[in-house]
Amino acid sequence: MEGGENENGGKKRGCGCSKQDFLPEESFQSCRSYLNALCNTKSRLRDRLLARSADHMELHEIRGRSQQEMKKRLNWWDIIWFGIGAVMGSGIFVLTGEAARNHSGPAVVVSYLISGMTALLSVLCYTEFCVELPVAGGSFTYLRVELGDFVAYIAAGNILFEYVVAGASVARSWTSYLATLFNHDPNSFRFHASSFPEDYSHLDPIAAVVSLLICITACMSTKGSSRFNSIATIVHLLVLLFILIVGLTKGNPQHFSNFAPNGIRGILKASSILFFAYVGFDGVATLGEEVKNPGRDIPIGLIGSMLIIILLYCLLSATLILIQPYYQIDVNAPFTLAFQAIGLKWAKYIVALGALKGMTTVLLANILGQARYFTHIGRTHMAPPFLATINEKTRTPVNATVVMTLVNSIVGFFTSLDVLANLLSLTTLLIFSLVALALLVRRYYVGGETTSSNRNKLILFLMLIIGSSIATAVYWAIGKNGWIGYAVTVPIWFIATLGLNLMVKEAKKPKLWGVPLVPWLPSASFATNVFIMASVDGASYVRFGIWTLLLLLYYVFIALHASYDAAKETTDTTSAATATCLEDGGASQLHH
Predict the structure, then answer these.
(1) Are the beta carbons of 20 and 28 closer than 8 angstroms?
(2) Which of 55, 121, 307, 492 would be a feasible disulfide site paired with 525, CB 3.0-4.6 Å?
(3) What is the pLDDT of residues 1-20, one digit of tens each?
(4) Would you say 375 and 136 are in contact if contact means Cβ atoms under 8 Å apart?
(5) Contact of 168 with 94, CB cutoff 8 Å
(6) Which residues pair with 191 in a beta bridge?
């Protein structure tokens, strides 16, 4: 791993792996200084808990801690392909079967459209932030600027955990689909270690090797990664085109006759499942620091890719229904067995190839997003700052990329798919909800400018939006078929959003590109994401709580003090620079 150099020419960070690489802050220089820091935990919590960063800090001072800058080599074309590659993995080949057969029937097309529009609302919120704050931290940066250090830290810690689980899951699925291509059982491509627990006994070297190859690609060049992603995604799209053509030539329109067998509830339940086929674009937002023209390229890339994905998902789900009646669709391998039902057994190889290509690009986007998240977290010193280093030669975050790949590979090497699938939690939906909320705060509150009256009204309306959204989701989750609950919660959400629109003055306008129809679209994005969270199983909330508790322990004992020292150092440096400028200005005036 590469390290930066200090001004005397010595190594500052990297792999010599001294304590200074991990904890260089003043609070960790001795036992006495650390004990002193712990004694001041309460005051430091007050200082950092709601501390908000500023745009110029994230764009200049914080980013400058990486020593080197990432190369700005990406354009809207690259972002479109990254968007498609990051989102369109194997989800379409897996989730469609369960949604169509068990919930929505042929109306799965409508379910994909609803979940796609929900994802598009989140994309719009991300796009405004990414244009205004084109830095590597993605949602971590957006939340840090608007909702404060603590919220950003908890959110980022959870999403990194989900990235690791998702990366390991996709890597092991890669092995499973490769085995399918060779007519083998997936575990025949793995080594069985009988002395290990059953869920960890099928060792998967292929998953680890694929992850490491993707890591090498990501480390060498972001533009090179973009070219590889584009080629792999084109192959994936050709496979999807084959599926569409077969559906049009072999399909039976009569399969759409019983369109929505389970009514609107079945459609919405399917939408909550299918929403997870659209996640991944948040990782693409972390590439903002490497985009040539953020004001043009990011909106075209992020929004354009999501619109293409929504269209493709709707067409593919309609094709599946054309090929086979919804009640005959296999839940685990819908497309493969649908082709077998019409006598095209060989088509399963094409489907497996498409899934392999899709999972490869998802792995690439996953590690790119992970590394850039971690890089910016390292810049704030909430994670070891050696992770913030940008390689001088490749201008990519090599340290963070290698570390996250090693974690992914170890988890993927040992852990079964069943365990990994059960670990995927509600974090993504939580982050999307918080980003929408942060956008409302950004538009309606500016410290030192917004009046106390407008601030108080903003707090009131936000609390009503949050409360009514949660109440609607809970009412749905407990399975009430009546409309009385919705007749109360939905109007409260509407009135609160209307009040925010009419009674609170907008404090900040976006400089280059902004979400239209504010506050309606961000408020709707928050409400729909919370609504989908109601469909997540209770075990996910337990896992979220346990992991968040571990994050809190790390925060109280390490991250709080490291980030406090880093913020204090930045403040002192800025104050010294300002004082120097004032002195120089005064001396100049005396001279004249």
Answers:
(1) no
(2) 121
(3) 444 444 334 444 444 566 67
(4) yes
(5) no
(6) 203
Alpha helices in 195-221 (DSSP H): 205-220
Tokens 């109601």 map to which residue?
Answer: 534
- C-alpha angle 364/116/276, rounded to 5°? 50
What count of residues does the chain have? 592
Distance CA 269, CA 271 (A): 5
Q: What is the pTM of this model?
A: 0.89
3-state secondary structure of 269: helix
Q: Which residues pair with 291 in a beta bridge?
A: 74
Phi then psi for residue 458, to 5 deg, are -60, -45
pLDDT digits (tens, 9 = 90+) for 184-194: 888 888 888 88
- What letter represents residue 560's amino acid? L
Domains observed in the chain: 72-446+516-544 (1.20.1740.10)
Q: Are 426 and 537 in contact (CB under 8 A)?
A: no
Burial letters 379-390, b for 16+ CB under 10 A, else e:
bbbbbbbbbbbb
Give how far Cα 517 sits from Cα of 404, 466, 510, 521, 522, Å. 38, 19, 13, 6, 8
Dump the DSSP string for 320-372.
HHHHS-GGG--SSSHHHHHHHHTT-TTHHHHHHHHHHHHHHHHHHHHHHHHHH
